[in-house]
Amino acid sequence: MKNIGVKIALLLGAVEIIAMVVLFLVMDDNLTKILEEKAIKDMNVVAQDRAELAEAYIDSCCDLLDGYSKSAEIRGVLEHPEDEAALAASREFTLRYADGHDNIEGLYVAKWDTWVLAHINPDSMDKTFREADSAKELEDRIRAMGCSFCTGVVLAPVTRNMVIPVYAPVYNAEGEAIGFAGAAFYPEGLASRLESAAGDTDESMGYSIFNAANNIFIFDHDTSLVGTECSDSEILDIMSSFREAEGRERFATLRRKGEIISFYYMPERDWVFAVTDAGADSLGVVDKVRVNIIVILVCVTVVMMALCIWSLHRMIEPLHAIHRQILRLNSGDYSRGHGIEKYCHRDDEFGTIANAVKELHISLENQTELFHEIMEVQMTGMVVAKETNSRVLMINQTALKLYGIPEEEKDDITIEGIRARFTDEELANIDEQLSKVTDFSEEVVFESPVTYSDGKKAWLLTHVKTLTLSNSERVTIYSLMDITERKHMEQDLQMQAETDALTGISNRRSGEYRIGQLLERGEGGLFCLFDANKFKLINDGYGHAAGDEVLVALAKAMSATFRSSDILVRLGGDEFVVYAPSVPDRSVAEKLINRLMENVDKIAPESLKGHKVSISLGAVMTEGSEDFARLYSRADSLMYGCKAKGGNAYEFYEG
């Protein structure tokens, strides 16, 4: 609904754009031809001018080398290469001749086999820089040229810099070529002259020189291309056309997206000089005219669309207000004063819809208030949350209390916030129970402990069920009950069922079960069985109360000797069992038993009037492979063997 105005404005704008585009195309066709012809002509002039500048630069390099090759010192060292004085004079002259020429990378004189006699770089002297075949090819070319000449731009063999090499033959007095002189000029000198000629107006221009004979880059602002073969099919076609025209055609132009390239053919060298205007400044007038037309078109369209949107917005504002109110109702916001009331008095369709939404608002508000009141009076905690983002939609006071959530945090609480109220161990217990459930459309029930911020603990019984609403949104309902008292009662009953009432350690049933569980898991250790020596005499002589006191003292001696993780059991009467898992060997076991004997020896109840208490003990080391009955049988025979020897002793089973 809110896009109606935009759609209408776009439709009107599209019609206007089509009309203006047609006008633009008619004007552009003729205008473009005129301006492009002028721009291309200007580019051709630039290409010829820059090509002549490059030619002049190369000629100056050749002239410099020509003067060097004709000097007496250079001719003399080639006539007498073994003469130390001639070598020294040529080398001194070479350095003096190159002095002041910053664009020279190398200047030298060499024999035909490229053995360097003098060089401005001392490291390059007395060396041959070409193989025999390559040197012979160079000699033939220099002899054929007969004067100084340039070969393009290459990679210097020693310094590995990109240079412009120039060669010239050296003649003796009889006019015989006896060697050659060479120079390497930095291509930056040529680039600098081209840039100086371009000035500030042609900063976007780039320059390239191609050898039309082999399509190799002789010069380019991108030095990585120098010496490589051009692979641009359009440029290759242009260079081929120059050669086919045999010098009759000097100019060619290549126009493509983002750039225009003007080519000038140099038939004397069979080179092609290219000027690239990467910024398309040569056709800037054409582009500016086009841009101006487009800007006018866009501005008019934007203004028209803005006017349409503004007028339509005022027309359908009541629908916007009604739509916003429906969205608020859908999100559970039943607050008033959002502007819909001012449209209820209208006699048109907008007024009818506004009144209907208002009545719906009142009805939903009443039902929501009633539902919240019903939730608040519940004795069980109630939580309703979205399944997609876990946002809590409703939570009553009972649930806040059971989870330990302050009232001021009620509006911002999420399921993740509720989970943060549980410890990691408690969350692991909840997740373990929920992981067993695959279908939450059925009610899930589980018990979980919770620890409050003051350290108190409670147990909650939680019922969970997920519902799919009529709008396909899924919500999860949690109901909570406090079962702390019931859990404490269950724990007390379990404790009573598993604990010996007199001594407080495990009774026979519980002890046998716990030891059996460890043995089934293969947890080996120390198994001890003992009883009190002459316990019947204590009961008969001092009374059963004294006997009970002795039994309690024996249990305390066991607790003082062994770890809390060890299993202490009263089997019945004065018979006790200890199972200490993870005792590694007999030496450690003997230390524990000796400590137990010492603690038993300290038992001295006043009711016994100085009578000493002692025990007889049988011990078995197990790796967890036996069952309780077998361990008991072995320890029992050892215990009675100790009694037969007078008691107050222990023996180990020797298996």
Describe the structure.
- The protein has 655 residues and is of the alpha+beta class.
- Helix content is 48%, strand content 21%.
- The strands form 4 sheets. Strands 1, 2, 3, 4, 5 and 6 form a 6-stranded antiparallel beta sheet that branches. Strands 8-7-11-10-9 form a 5-stranded antiparallel beta sheet, with helices on both faces. Strands 13-12-16-15-14 form a 5-stranded antiparallel beta sheet, sandwiched between helices.
- Helix 17 links the parallel strand 20 and strand 21.
- Helix 7 packs across helix 8.
- The longest helix is centred in the first third of the chain and has 66 residues.
- The mean pLDDT is 81.
How many beta strands in the DSSP annotation?
21
Tell me the domain tally: 5
What are the low-pLDDT stretches, counting only 5+ consecutive residues below 50? none
Number of helices: 17
* Cα gyration radius (Å): 53 Å
CATH topology group of the largest domain: Beta-Lactamase
Strand content: 15-25%
Terminal residue distance: 91 Å
- Rough shape? flat
Q: What characterizes the major β-sheet?
A: 6 strands, antiparallel
Overall structural class, as computed from helix and strand content, comes to alpha+beta
DSSP helix fraction: 40-55%
**Full CATH superfamily name of the largest domain:** PAS domain
Topology at a glance:
Layout: H1 4-69, H2 72-79, H3 84-98, E1 104-110, E2 116-119, H4 132-145, E3 149-150, E4 154-155, E5 162-171, E6 177-185, H5 187-198, E7 205-211, E8 216-220, H6 233-244, E9 251-256, E10 259-266, E11 271-277, H7 284-330, H8 349-376, E12 381-386, E13 392-395, H9 397-403, H10 415-419, H11 424-434, E14 444-451, E15 457-468, E16 474-482, H12 484-498, H13 508-520, E17 525-532, H14 535-542, H15 544-561, E18 567-572, E19 575-581, H16 586-601, E20 615-622, H17 628-644, E21 649-652
Parallel strand pairs: 20-21
Antiparallel strand pairs: 1-2, 1-6, 3-5, 4-5, 5-6, 7-8, 7-11, 9-10, 10-11, 12-13, 12-16, 14-15, 15-16, 17-19, 17-20, 18-19
Helix pairs in contact: 1-5, 1-7, 2-3, 7-8, 14-15, 15-16
